[in-house]
Structures are given as structure tokens and as C-alpha cells.
Design brief:
Largest sheet: 8 strands, mixed
Number of helices: 9
CATH superfamily of the largest domain: Zn peptidases
Helix content: 25-40%
Shape: globular
CATH topology of the largest domain: Aminopeptidase
Radius of gyration: 22 Å
CATH architecture of the largest domain: 3-Layer(aba) Sandwich
Strand order of the largest sheet: 1-2-12-3-13-16-14-15
Number of strands: 17
Distance between the termini: 43 Å
Mean pLDDT: 95
Low-confidence stretches: none
Length: 363
């Protein structure tokens, strides 16, 4: 069984180099669906842009595998008389990494304008200026415009979306590196699961939904909507987690997770224990490396939205270890990507139609 192929890796490059800001995911969803369609029976979109493919339609028992399609970004919030842009966050954008970054300002009706996050030169900053640090009200975008009027003539206005510029790369032939691996690489992985099921002629005894949700970065909103539409019986969610062996991270606080050592399974109130057991037993049986982590109260992922919907949906979270989350140089190990795909693919084949997920089937 061939996992990530040259063709699928080329799709991943196109997918990550495309922008997909929260609330404006349509172009990324088009690319994702174009890749997915050969491996599914049907596809649909909801009103806010969550895209999903359907395999083996018509069964009452429905299983979801899910990632999220949106990336962090900015909104233009104010244009100064001198033509500089002040921004607010759209999702968990990190203003501390903004200075000297190149950006695209996306126009409402298509097209984009290049700009940079400027920052005062080191020569102009003294010890007395130590309070001048990157903050949401100190970072500004420079378009090379002479004044506010020129900015407006470009088609830029309050509400325009801003994304960082970057290019997807493969670092040391080992790491996928770039912007928005959180969590479009999850969307990539579930699409690869669909491909493997199709190419290996696997017929599941239930209907499978491959879901790429919108608006996770602002509160799991796409998952909240789509779970009410599909009303699944089971949901396996994939997202990213932190490689805690990078500098300045506290392993005691954030857990002991390392890229290259396998995807993680999460223990949390929202994670259904019987479904988690299926996934762990599958990993052990198929000799798929995995790691364990725990979340207090909530997972902070779409798992929570699925688990607490529709009277309770048995849900589990499989995460991809990631370095430098919410930067332009997020890094995921190729081995972890392959093993995450394998774990979902194999786990799906352990779930039965009308599988009993009740805590107590008899007493």
C-alpha cells in the first residue's frame, strides 16, 4: 500500500501555497474538492463553505473523519493618513512574528496587493524605547503608498483580509515546512485516506463523510454547523499538536511529544473511551507508532464540537505533532503524516455498522 505519492505531495504543495483565511476558505476548498472527487461517490458544500465528500452513501450509520480548512490571518482595521494599515487578528495570528514579514492584502472582488509589516530600525531604538515591542497596536503594514487616498484607490478598505507570503518547502528531505499546515495538512491526510480506500477497494459497512470544516480558528464554528447537518454516529477528528522538544517549551506543562515519533492520541472528557480503545488497539495491532497526550477540560479542536452535538457523538482526536504552530515555518515530519494517514485508514476498518458505543450495553 503506497501512502503519500509524488502526485499527492504535489497537491499538498498547491494546497498549502494557496491562501485560505478564516471566513474566506473558498479557493482552498475548490482545490481540495478537485483532488478528492475521484475517490468519493458524492460531495457537498454547506452555506458557510464546509466541504465534504461521501463514500458509500445510503447507510443509517454515519462516520465522519474531519480536518479544518482555514488558516489564521488579519483584517485591515484602520488606514492612517500617511497610508499605513493597522490590523486586527482573524484567528490566533501572532503579532510578535509580524515585523519584517511580507504580506498579501486581498481585495474584496479578487486580486491582491503586496505589502510588508514594517518595524523601526534598531538604530532608532534605545533602552528608553524598550516598551516598543510587537503588539497588535504597534505593528503596521506598509504598501509603499504616499497617503490614505492612494491606499483607497488600490481597492483596499477596512475589512480586507491579510495573509503572510511564503512558499511550501521540504526541509532536510524530512519535514514539510510552511504556512498553514495547521490544519490544511489534516485536510490533506483525510483526502489521502479516501484515496487509499478507493485504490484498495475497501468497502466500509457504513457511510463515510470526509469533512473539511471552515472557521475552526475562531471557535470551531464550521464543525458546529456541519455536525448538525450530517448528524454522525462517530467522528474521528485530526488536528495538530505541539512538538514540545523545541526550544523554550516546558515538557512538564505541555506534555512529552516529539516530531517523528508518530501521531498522538488524546485523553480528554470529549474523547469517547471506546472509540479511543479502537484506535489504540489498531495502532498496536498494525504496529503504527503513536504518542499519548492529555487535555484538561477541552481539546480546543473540532473534537469538542462534534462530541457535544446531537445528544453526544462518540468522538476521538488524532493529532499531528507540529513545530512552530501559527508561524510561517510550521514543520511536520513526513513519517508522522504517513502514520496518521495509516492510523485513520486502519481504524475505520475496525468500526462496524451499528457499533455499540454506549458505556453500558447491559447492567
Amino acid at each position: 500500500m503506497q501512502l503519500v505519492t509524488t502526485n499527492s505531495e504535489a497537491f499538498l504543495r498547491r494546497y498549502l501555497n494557496n491562501t485560505s483565511p478564516t471566513g474566506f476558505e473558498s479557493e482552498g476548498q475548490k482545490l481540495w474538492l478537485e483532488y478528492l472527487i475521484p475517490y468519493i461517490d458524492e460531495w457537498k458544500l454547506d452555506n458557510y463553505g464546509t466541504a465534504y465528500g461521501i463514500v458509500n452513501p445510503g447507510h443509517d450509520f454515519k462516520v465522519v473523519i474531519e480536518g479544518h480548512a482555514d488558516e489564521i490571518s488579519w483584517f485591515v482595521n484602520h488606514i492612517t493618513d500617511d497610508g499605513f494599515l493597522h490590523v486586527i487578528r482573524n484567528g490566533g495570528s501572532d503579532f510578535q512574528i509580524a515585523p519584517s514579514m511580507r504580506v498579501w492584502v486581498h481585495l474584496r472582488k479578487g486580486g491582491k496587493i503586496e505589502g510588508v509589516f514594517g518595524w523601526p530600525a534598531i538604530h532608532t531604538r534605545t533602552d528608553k524605547d524598550s516598551n516598543i515591542t510587537p503588539a497588535i497596536d504597534t505593528v503596521t503594514i506598509d504598501l509603499g503608498a504616499k497617503d490614505r487616498e492612494e491606499v483607497l484607490k488600490m481597492g483596499i478598505h477596512v475589512g480586507c483580509v491579510v495573509t503572510f507570503q511564503d512558499e511550501f518547502t521540504i526541509l532536510n528531505e524530512r519535514y514539510y515546512t510552511g504556512r498553514a499546515l495547521d490544519n490544511r495538512i489534516g485536510g490533506f491526510c483525510i483526502a489521502e485516506v479516501a484515496r487509499l480506500l478507493k485504490e484498495n477497494n475497501i468497502t466500509l459497512p457504513y457511510t463515510l463523510y470526509i469533512v473539511n470544516s471552515v472557521q475552526e480558528e475562531v471557535g470551531l464554528r464550521g464543525a458546529e454547523m456541519i455536525t448538525q447537518t450530517i448528524k454522525p454516529n462517530v467522528a474521528i477528528v485530526t488536528d495538530v499538536t505541539h512538538d514540545t522538544h523545541t526550544p523554550m517549551l516546558n515538557i512538564k506543562k505541555h506534555g512529552d511529544i516529539r516530531t517523528g515519533s508518530g501521531p498522538t492520541v488524546t485523553y480528554a472528557p470529549a474523547v469517547h473511551q471506546k472509540l479511543l480503545d479502537i484506535i489504540i488497539d489498531t495502532a498496536i495491532e498494525k504496529e503504527i507508532p503513536f504518542q499519548r497526550e492529555a487535555s484538561s477540560r477541552v481539546t480546543g479542536t473540532d473534537t469538542d464540537a462534534f462530541a457535544y452535538s446531537n445528544g453526544g457523538v462518540p468522538s476521538a482526536l488524532i493529532s499531528l505533532p507540529l513545530r512552530y504552530m501559527h508561524t510561517t515555518v510550521e514543520m511536520a515530519h513526513k513519517d508522522d503524516v504517513n502514520n496518521l494517514i495509516r492510523l485513520i485508514y486502519e481504524s475505520l476498518q475496525k468500526i462496524e455498522n451499528n457499533h455499540d458505543f454506549k458505556y453500558f450495553s447491559s447492567i
